[in-house]
Amino acid sequence: MMRIHTLLVEDTLSLAETVIAFFELEGIDCDYAATGSQGLELALSNEYQTILLDINLPRMNGLEVCEALRHQGVDVPVLMLTARDTLEDKLAGFDAGTDDYLIKPFELSELAARVKALAKRRSAQAQKLAVGPLVMDLSSKTASREGKTLNLSPTGWKLLELLMRESPSVVSRQKMENAIWSDADFPDSDVLKVHLYKLRQQVDKPFSTKLIETVATHGVAIRVRND
Which residues lie below 8 Å from residue 109, measured CB to CB, with a gap of 6+? Predict the structure, then answer.
């Protein structure tokens, strides 16, 4: 089984040492930062499956770190660790882009279980998605490639967001249909083909390289080709 690589940002050294030692037994590799600014630097320069943030951190607090990560397009799931247990505090954390919350003091086994669950997915909280030269800014609802604005329909936006979130993985027809039409009454299969055609006209046609790739019998993916 592949080990999970996580980042712990916590200014209480004794707690951090205890967590890191327990994670080692659970198959979780853990990098450590004692300040918010150091944690932000590590999160932006390394690949992690999860990030654990204490709220009360020196230099930058956990909410500021999480918010900065989301604006940079980082979609790694974030688990916030805090002694604050009011509804207002939790809402502030979710507004900043956190995916889960754990109140101190906590059981190490529960922390490890949550990390393992979060590591299986990407966060939906990122404010910017990027695949090579293709960029979606979710906060301003704009998309561009090589600086050229893409004029997407609402359906085209949903499709592109799904494909970029899943990139470079292949997205099945069923998953695309579910993203566009949430009810069970999907339109004729040709309708999805039309939307994909229109999306290709925007994303690929004006440019020398293609990003949208059809994988026979599997679905569609957005990938940067290296050839």
Answer: none
